[in-house]
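Action item from last meeting closed. Structure (311 res):
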């Protein structure tokens, strides 16, 4: 969950990016065409990528790819190292199954709406409501237009609007490209989490945390700059820069960091350990923010004694 309006996006990006296309148009998640290697202009050349290799004790090599969940068509070509990792992998694991996400489109809308008579305006403090209304107007919306939706869902709508303004689309994102390739090649696509878990996580965030997500949003112009900076850091394989861009602000919001990053990263380790100690090569694709930093997947696996190479 990697590229959204400054803090709003960077918080909710940790889990919600898979759901963004459904927030605006459920059919988009099932209309993806396979994007073959080399179909678009390549990303800037770099000696390193957000691709990491772990060799297990029983013959398996597991590739961990940090994803930008949405990209624009002009930079959608994945590096050759990713093509090689995909070719060698017997399976592809994502944060969650896109097919399962598409099947939960109606539930997303139901959970995103208030059902107890509350409204977005009544949920937010007066100052927050005024600030959010100003922010929404920068995206061509008003608070009254989204008054029936919960703050976390409105954050998703804002993110979708921001992406559209700068030409970023899910179909060009790393996850969807590799999901489409895997299906075309007949490779199993596995989910590290279920859609029910992810929806429950979003809907279970405290009102204070949800309000903070909206309050920390930025203008479309600033969002465009942020997206470009994150994309470029990802293309350069700059793990420390991505940690700073995506995660470090969450140090000031420890409950959000724990829910959206730390707990989820830790919960994936047993599943990744099972792949690493197996016999078949595998490719695992998660948001780049999950791999980097002190609580990231790479650090957690190194703590278990694994040697990890950045490719």
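Sequence:
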């Amino acid at each position: 969950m990697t590229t959204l309006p400054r803090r709003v996006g960077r918080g909710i990006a940790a889990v919600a990016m898979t759901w963004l296309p459904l927030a605006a148009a459920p059919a988009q998640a099932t209309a993806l065409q396979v994007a073959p290697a080399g179909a678009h202009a390549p990303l800037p050349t770099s000696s390193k990528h957000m691709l990491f290799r772990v060799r297990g004790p029983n013959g398996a090599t597991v590739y961990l790819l940090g994803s930008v969940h949405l990209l624009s068509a002009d930079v959608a070509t994945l590096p050759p190292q990713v093509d090689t990792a995909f070719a060698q992998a017997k399976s592809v694991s994502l944060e969650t199954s896109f097919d399962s996400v598409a099947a939960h489109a109606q539930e997303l809308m139901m959970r995103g709406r208030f059902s107890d008579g509350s409204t977005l305006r009544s949920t937010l403090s007066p100052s927050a409501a005024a600030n959010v209304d100003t922010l929404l107007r920068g995206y061509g919306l008003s608070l009254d237009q989204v008054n029936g939706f919960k703050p976390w869902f409105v954050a998703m709508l804002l993110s979708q609007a921001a992406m559209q303004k700068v030409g970023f689309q899910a179909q060009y994102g790393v996850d969807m490209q590799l999901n489409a390739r895997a299906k075309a090649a007949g490779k199993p696509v596995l989910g590290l989490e279920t859609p029910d878990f992810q929806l429950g996580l979003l809907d279970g965030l405290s009102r204070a945390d949800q309000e903070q997500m909206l309050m920390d949003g930025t203008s479309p112009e600033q969002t465009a700059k942020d997206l470009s900076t994150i994309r470029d850091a990802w293309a350069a394989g700059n793990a420390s820069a991505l940690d700073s861009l995506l995660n470090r602000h969450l140090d000031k919001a420890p409950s959000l960091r724990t829910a959206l990053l730390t707990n989820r990263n830790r919960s994936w380790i047993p599943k990744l350990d099972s792949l690493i100690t197996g016999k078949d090569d595998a490719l695992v694709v998660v948001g780049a923010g999950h791999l980097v930093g002190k609580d990231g997947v790479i650090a957690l696996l190194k703590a278990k004694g694994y040697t990890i190479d950045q490719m």
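Note appended to the action item: Residues 1-14, 23-43 have pLDDT under 50 and may be disordered.
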